Amino acid sequence: MSGAVIRPLPTIAGTRIAGTGHYRPERVVTNDDLANTLDTNDEWIRSRVGIVERHFANDTETVVWMGAQAGAHAIADAGLTPADIDTVIVATCTMPSQIPHASTQVAAELGIEAPGSFDVNGACAGFCYGMALASHAIKAGTSRNVLVVGSERMTDWVNPADRGNAIIFGDGAGAAVIVGSAVDEIGPVAWGSSEKLTSTIHVKDRESFVYQEGQSVFRWATTAIAPVAIRAAELAGVALADIDVLITHQANLRIIESIAKKIKAAGARDDLVVATDIQTTGNTSSASIPISLDRMRAAGTVKSGDLILSVGYGAGLTYAALVYRCP
Predict the structure, then answer these.
(1) Which of 116, 190, 253, 260 holds its CA 20 to 30 A away from the CA of 50?
(2) InterPro entries of this UniProt entry (predicted)?
């Protein structure tokens, strides 16, 4: 038996977000537009989920293409070029087929040569899973600069005649570039799943649309998710009072408000900024957190150096939360 010792790679002390980007399809669909084909109205939708409008992709705005647009913006924002990216992670649950996976195709669109690439299907928690995996890969020494993308075409998987789901979901992509740092600016991830609730959100087979037990998911999200976010702050060693911004998965405005209320009751400041991009983007699954982050940066709602707490949750049922500093 050989006595050779496997040599570990040099490790990196910390990681940070270097840049962000997003893409929302050109077509805007208002509540009144939906009322033309569904038994619904603007007031009913706003009161139920808080959405005013959402974006629907056209035939050319694919999961891969939208992901590449968001990724290009994030790479440029980080002051890097595609040649600097050595790993691509795409969080998605709406690819039209599973092979080939989205990440290699996104890399090809961007001109990134020979990257490590893989997809993550954590549904609406996918982007937080992707961020954590990127951070782990860099700290382990296997990656230097990682592009993490959340991209979804939810409208491909939603029955347009299903009033409960058709009013909620939209399409889009968001991205972030994760790089090494002397000081850690991305905290440990708090992740897990509620394996006994897998049937509450599912797609039965290739010929089916997404099914969701709305009330069950609502009860779960409004009771189980705030503690996950609080746990992420604890793992990062920061007090809730230190958190400047809360960016949750944009599932439903009532859920967002419930989570924020519980986090404030646990010690967060009254002036905690809470993302509500759901109102004009809709529920874009794994894309919702990075879209919110990039749009809030552009609007000045979140500033460089702000401490952000993000929590994603959705089908699986899976969840993941982490604390990070705004680039």
Answers:
(1) 190
(2) ACP_syn_III_C, ACP_syn_III_N, FabH, Thiolase-like
Ramachandran assignment for 81, one of left (phi > 0), alpha (psi -120 to 50 degrees), beta (any other): beta
| Strand-pair partners of 309 | 246, 323
* Alpha carbons 70 and 151: distance in angstroms, whole number: 9
**How far is Cα 94 from Cα 14, in angstroms, rounded to an integer?**
32
Which distant-in-sequence residues (6+ apart) come within 8 Å of 45 by Cβ? 31, 34, 51, 167
Q: What domains are defined for the chain? A: 14-181 (3.40.47.10), 190-326 (3.40.47.10)
Q: What are phi and psi of 178, to 5 degrees?
A: -105, 130
Q: At what angle do helices 214-236 and 253-265 cross, to 10 degrees?
A: 40
Indicate if 283 belongs to the active site.
yes
**CB atoms closer than 10 angstroms to residue 224:** 15
Instruction: Give 167's pLDDT tier (boundaries 50, 70, 90).
Output: very high
- Annotated catalytic, 159? no
Residue tagged active-site, from 55, 73, 101, 249: 249
Q: Indicate which residue of 93, 124, 128, 326 is catalytic.
A: 124
What are the tens digits of pLDDT across the range 259-284? 999 999 999 999 999 999 999 999 99
pLDDT > 90 in the chain, percent: 93
Pairing state between β 14-23 and 318-325 = unpaired
Q: Across the chain, where does the E strand assignment appear?
A: 14-23, 27-30, 53-56, 87-91, 116-120, 145-153, 171-181, 190-193, 201-203, 210-212, 245-248, 273-274, 307-314, 318-325
Q: Residue range 7-29: average pLDDT? A: 94
Strands 201-203 and 245-248: unpaired
Task: With H, G, I as helix, E, B as strand and everything else as coil, classify residue 81.
Answer: coil
pTM of the full structure: 0.96
Q: For this structure, is 36 an active site residue?
A: no
d(CA 57, CA 155): 8
User: From CA 165, how far away is CA 174, in angstroms rounded?
Assistant: 22
